[in-house]
Amino acid sequence: MVEKLEAGDLENAAIDQSQRRLLEFVKKLTLEPAGTTDAEVEALRETGWTDPQIAEAVYVTALFAFFNRVADAFGLANPGYREQDTPPARFE
Fold this sequence. Notes:
By secondary structure, the chain is mostly helical. It has one domain: Up-down Bundle (AhpD-like). The protein contains 4 helices and no strands. The chain has helices at about 1-5, 15-30, 40-45, 50-75.
């Protein structure tokens, strides 16, 4: 399932319609934030998402965009964690 989601293949990912709609909304929010509509938010409500859940999805999406822009501005390199066979050691 993770591979399909990482590739952005929502059509073939093993997720339900409610999750698919939320991820489609988040994708649009990421790529064209000014293009999101009240009707899209209402459609999320109709599939069972609550206003606090929708707001959290918006906040998380916005924070990731912020962190990515900060990292890009400072030239921070991808640490490559996803390519590793085991997670990095924790600092204690």
